[in-house]
Write a structure and sequence with these properties.
This protein is mainly alpha-helical and 300 residues long. It contains nine helices and no strands.
Length: 300
């Protein structure tokens, strides 16, 4: 018979799951609706072009986000029984829900890594293929990746036990402890630092250009980058703040939304930069076109 403690735990988990499911449903709706909406543009601007590093990472970001979130749907919305263990608690590594949560954390890290590569390629073009910019961004990205791996491993190392049948009543336990929240906030902070660096580099170029190139491809790239960062900084900050300040019920509720929005926005940015109308605009130097024309991904 269920005790008062277990009943209280179910209520907390159920409340957390409800909030997470609302945010997740909105996120998945944005992801798959935008995929269908932009599929004709993708066919026109990427399927018919040649192979390039930009196109390779575009497709990787695009289809990894669309397909790899299916297990996340299971994590959020499917109530599942845990492996039978009699009256004993199930170990952390044996829990299906914890494995799905680990998968979700790894997916979030990979998504941000691919988005980061696309932003690096774009910034590389804005700076006329400057190696100094590549070295700077690669260093920050590597450090951020190390922080993210450390955070995921640390979160997984924190044993969180709940009674065996909780997943039957509520679905996966999506609550996070205060310490887990701190670790994940550190991971997202490193991503925010990387995006802030991209924004500063973009802004520096914008200030150099002024109004001289206000109707050029360069200007379009600067404009899109500014809009992208402005929206993403809101998502990242909300993520970090919920991990640090929110109650366990609400920690990380915007993680899926942030991943989806960042992936969707970078897709839009890459589609927009290959708009055929932009080819008619003046450009400052040939490297700006690396986001439009195909740069071979390997020596041919």
């Amino acid at each position: 018979m269920m005790g008062d403690v277990e009943a209280a735990q179910i209520r907390i988990i159920a409340e957390s799951n409800h909030v997470n499911r609302v945010f997740a449903a909105i996120a998945f709706g944005i992801l798959w609706y935008d995929f269908v909406l932009t599929l004709p543009l993708e066919v026109e601007r990427y399927w018919k072009g040649g192979r390039s590093w930009a196109s390779v990472f575009f497709f990787l970001n695009r289809y990894m986000s669309v397909l790899s979130h299916i297990p996340v749907v299971v994590e959020f919305f499917l109530a599942m029984p845990e492996p039978a263990a009699g009256r004993h608690r199930v170990t952390y590594d044996d829990r299906r829900c914890r494995k799905l949560q680990l998968y979700h954390q790894i997916l979030a890290a990979l998504t941000q890594c691919i988005v980061g590569v696309l932003l690096m390629l774009r910034t590389y073009a804005l700076y006329n293929r400057s190696r100094k910019v590549v070295y700077l961004l690669t260093s920050i990205c590597t450090l951020g990746g190390a922080v993210s791996v450390w955070a995921i491993v640390s979160v997984r190392g924190l044993h969180v036990s709940s009674f065996q049948d909780v997943a039957i009543y509520t679905g996966c336990d999506l609550t996070l402890t205060e310490k887990q929240g701190y670790y994940l906030a550190a991971a997202w902070s490193s991503i925010l630092v990387f995006d802030a660096t991209i924004f500063v580099l973009t802004l520096v170029q914008a200030l150099r250009v002024g109004r001289t190139w206000s109707h050029s491809l360069f200007y379009v790239m600067l404009r899109d980058g500014t809009i992208y960062f402005g929206m993403l900084v809101i998502c990242y900050l909300s993520n970090i703040l919920t991990y640090i300040l929110a109650e366990p019920v609400y920690k990380g509720v915007s993680t899926t939304m942030t991943n989806v929005i960042s992936s969707t926005l970078i897709t839009r940015l890459m589609l927009n930069i290959r708009d055929p109308k932009l080819l008619e605009l003046p450009h400052r130097w040939p490297s700006e076109l690396m986001d439009i024309h195909d740069i071979p991904s390997s020596d041919e």
